[in-house]
Write a structure and sequence with these properties.
Layout lengths: L8 H11 L12 H11 L3 H8 L12 H4 L2 H10 L2 H15 L20 H10 L5 H12 L5 H8 L7 H11 L3 H8 L12 H12 L5 H16 L1
Helix pairs in contact: 1-11, 5-8, 5-12, 5-13, 6-13, 7-9, 8-9, 8-10, 10-11
Length: about 230
């Protein structure tokens, strides 16, 4: 069964706003202040909301090194196993790395979502903006939500071949770092019950994924090795 096509951006924003107790935007495209408020209430990033609204992404959003994303699930796995103090040290190192000048490189952009413009392709593209391809999405999803799906399933979701369900919605919400109720409001897929929200560990893992999205492969591999050493101490 194929996934249903997404409604227009103004309908999507109105759905999301109603789910968050906000009035729909008075006009389309919405203003920057309105999108920031949606971001604050939902936990979605400004980039995610620009995708939902059908608006251009800011310059640099696609400055991604695809081979680096392959290592991100390993970084998440090690980070989740660290004691709180060591996890703080890791985050400090991530922020120090993020503050360094980016090297000149050929941009490797996430692919345009193929097939029908469905909810699955929208969610997979949001994760592509975090430098997670289908294999990395599948691995990260299992680590933070215990939702086990193959990379081939993520591709079928992206291509509109496989529909979203409550369990997949929970998995996507965990990797994105938002309550599953937010994605339920956006997609119309019923949220799993009960929805207990994000644990602090999962929220922190999603933040880590976001912070390293522009890192090079050597950067991420070095962080993986460093986190592994922290875990041995």
């Amino acid at each position: 069964m194929t996934s249903p096509t997404c409604p227009s951006p103004d309908v999507l924003l109105a759905r999301l706003a109603r789910g968050l107790g906000l009035a729909p935007p008075p006009a389309h495209p919405p203003g920057e202040e309105y999108l920031h408020e949606l971001s604050r209430r939902s936990g979605l990033r400004d980039h995610d909301l620009l995708l939902i609204a059908g608006l251009p992404l800011p310059e640099g959003a696609l400055d991604l090194e695809g081979t680096a994303g392959i290592w991100v699930p390993s970084l998440v796995q090690h980070a989740l196993s660290l004691a709180p103090a060591d996890r703080r040290r890791l985050r400090e190192r991530v922020r120090a790395t993020a503050g360094q000048p980016r090297p000149a490189r050929s941009l490797e952009r996430p692919p345009a979502a193929p097939g029908p413009a469905g909810f699955g392709s929208l969610l997979v593209y949001m994760l592509a903006l975090r430098n997670l391809g289908p294999s990395a999405v599948a691995s990260a999803m299992y680590l933070v939500s215990d939702v086990c799906r193959a990379a081939s399933t993520i591709r079928r979701i992206r291509d509109g071949v496989t529909e979203l369900d409550a369990e997949l919605l929970r998995g996507f919400a965990a990797v994105l770092g938002v309550p599953v109720s937010v994605l339920a409001a956006l997609t119309g897929v019923s949220a799993p019950a009960p929805d207990d929200g994000l644990s602090p560990d999962v929220a922190e893992a999603a933040e880590l994924v976001w912070e390293v999205r522009h890192f090079t492969e050597p950067d991420v591999r070095e962080l993986v090795e460093w986190a592994e050493e922290l875990g041995r101490d």
